[in-house]
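sorry for the late reply, my laptop died twice this morning and i had to redo everyting from scratch. anyway the thing you sent over, i finally got around to it. pasting the sequence first so we're on the same page, its 398 residues, then the predicted structure underneath. double check i copied it right bc i was rushing
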Amino acid sequence: MMEAETFAGNNGWTRVSNIMKSSHPFFQRLFYWEGFDLSSNIYLFQTSEGVALIDPGNDYTAFYDLFSGNSLNISPSDIKHVLLSHGHSEHALGLFELLRSYPSLRTREHGLTVYLHENAPGALKNLADQLGCNLVFVKDGQEIALGEFAMKVVYTPGHTMDSVCYWHEETGSLFSGDTVLPFAVASPDPVGGGRVDYHLFSMRILRKLGVSHLFPGHGEIIKNEAPKVLEGNYAGLIKKVIGLQCPWIEGAQLLLRKGYLDETVFCCDKVLENDPSNRMALYLKACCLNDMGRFDEALNTFQKIDERGVSDNPLYFMGYGCSLMGMGRYEESLKYFDKALQLAPGLENALVYKGLALYLMGKIDKALDIKAFEKAFTGKLKEELLKTYGGQDQEKDG
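ok and here's the structure:
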């Protein structure tokens, strides 16, 4: 009872432009109802074609307030779209509260359209269909037109298998459901198909979007500081994978063995924040950057190792040569492959890469004289090597 009384004093539907201190039409038409423990935040758009809700929550007082003659001047029949971030009850059951309380919405003719992922709970999909909703199963990259606004779907499984975010690129605004939270990392729901590794991969995608503002399923709207929240969630998920007490450098080695290159680089950067001279972190980071095709960054990282004293590790010289080769600096790369071979004669990968550098320089006969290269440079391996390291050469030829 005390919680209900406290919540009743909530400031109700808040125009987001007042929070953002912005006159952008997107924020002017967007309203926010703050959720509580048993209900998610609710986001409402007023558009020229009706009202859209993102996560209708599970708090009947939000809709009682909305339709009680408030200044928004909205009636139940104005609601045309409901976008669900996932099927958990505190996010989705408000849809059925609306349909139960306002029977006029339960008609195909009304055209209440519900957007959700096909992996949403079967009971939710069946009931929404039985109650007359038009169900649209969204896919990654799909654009949803909401009057004069458009939202892009970003499929982000992890917390559940049906989790999606909605992205408004023009304003840098992400409606993240439980995929990104400002105060914690949501646990995977095994009943809903949740998996930490999927969540980690989803966070990897979101970090590259260029998000400025976060509209989470729980907690306050985050203005301008979304990258910090994303980084915090990403770090938290990595710790869930490697272990909370695992040092970052050990985590980097563990993740590299799993093939998680982005996450290995992140762990190395964490080490380098406190120890910029850590050669192991620099080396692992540089190797990952090479494998990701980020050769200029890899070369810069190898040069930092150089600044801290010449390495006696043949793998270091081989990696340095690969960075140069990936940047189209084939002749320079040969010096480093030769240095690797001086330290470890017969090192097969160094021989293969030396042969590739010669091949890309047009010295095909010399390249094929290297037996390790001749043997390796067949079939799909040839295609992969040329795709990775021959980009500069192929662009020149084109």
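Confidence is low (pLDDT under 50) at residues 1-9, 393-398.
thats about all i looked at so far, will dig more tmrw
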